[in-house]
Amino acid sequence: MGLYQRQIAPRLINRVCASSAFDRDRSLICAGLTGTVVEVGFGAGNNLRFYPPTVTKVYAVEPSEVSRREAAKRFATSSTPVELVGLDGQSLQLADDSCDAALMTFTLCTIEDPLAALRELHRVVRPGGRLHVLEHGRSPDAKVAAWQRRLEPLEIALADGCHLTRDPVALLTDAGFVTVTLDQHYAKGPKPWAYLTRIVVERPAS
Ligand SMILES: C[S@@+](CC[C@H](N)C(=O)[O-])C[C@H]1O[C@@H](n2cnc3c(N)ncnc32)[C@H](O)[C@@H]1O
Question: How many domains does one find in the chain?
Answer without folding.
Answer: 1
